[in-house]
Amino acid sequence: MTYNFNAGPATIPATVMERARGEFIDYANCGYGIIEASHRSAEFEEIIARAEGNVRELTGIGDDFAVLFLQGGASTQFAMIPMNFLPPDRTAAYVDTGLWSGKAVKEARKIGHVAVVAGTADADYDHIPELPAGTVATDAAYLHITTNNTICGTQYQAVPEVPDCVPLFADMSSDILSRPLPFESFDLVYAGAQKNLGPSGVTLVIVCRDLAESGAANLPSMLDYRTHIKGDSLYNTPPTFAIYMMALVTDWICEQGGLSAVAEVNRRKAADIYGCIDHDGFYRGRARTDSRSAMNVCFNLPTAAQEAAFVEAAAASGLIGLKGHRSVGGIRASIYNGMPPAGVNALVDFMQEFRRSQG
Amino acid sequence: MTYNFNAGPATIPATVMERARGEFIDYANCGYGIIEASHRSAEFEEIIARAEGNVRELTGIGDDFAVLFLQGGASTQFAMIPMNFLPPDRTAAYVDTGLWSGKAVKEARKIGHVAVVAGTADADYDHIPELPAGTVATDAAYLHITTNNTICGTQYQAVPEVPDCVPLFADMSSDILSRPLPFESFDLVYAGAQKNLGPSGVTLVIVCRDLAESGAANLPSMLDYRTHIKGDSLYNTPPTFAIYMMALVTDWICEQGGLSAVAEVNRRKAADIYGCIDHDGFYRGRARTDSRSAMNVCFNLPTAAQEAAFVEAAAASGLIGLKGHRSVGGIRASIYNGMPPAGVNALVDFMQEFRRSQG
Question: With a CB-CB cutoff of 8 Å, which residues 280-309 of chain B face chain A?
Answer without folding.
Answer: none
